[in-house]
Every structure is written in structure tokens, then in C-alpha cells.
Amino acid sequence: MVTKAGGEVLKVDNWGKRKLAYEMNKQKMGHYVMFIFKAPAAAIRQLEGFFKVYDQVIKFMVIKLGKKQVAALPADITGIPVTPAEVAPAEEKAAV
Question: How many domains does the chain have?
């Protein structure tokens, strides 16, 4: 659905079936999936509308990442290469 609306799915992380923090719709267990994607605002509204009416989805959350949060994502997710200057300080801290 994201790709049809002009977006791009960067990563799908299937967390599996887990106990919900609290009971919802008489359900105690839920299947958790995290999607990281880029999409225009219209695609996000369309996705939210779909999840609101789709009975199998009992709860969802869409979060817009800021520039710092996007920069903190691994390069294999964003497709943005990490320069050695960005990696060096973290390696130095880890070595201490």
C-alpha cells in the first residue's frame, strides 16, 4: 500500500506474537510489526485510514522522525552512506 501511494518501505521488523500492555477488544495477545518507510503525506493519511477500518489491526501508531532521528538510523536502512568521520567518534567512545 505504501509503494502504490508513491512511498518506499525501508525495513519491516516482525516482532511476533506478544502479550499486549493492556487488553483491547477482548484480546490479550497481539502480533507486533514495525515498518520504517518514506512516503508523502497523502500516502500516510491513506494508510492511517486503512488501518482504522481494517478489523485485524487493533492498534497502530505512525511516527514522523526528525532529521536527527533519521541520521541516527543505520545506513542499510536509509541508503545514506556513513562517512568515516561520523563513525570514528563512536568507535573511540566504545574503546574507552
Answer: 1
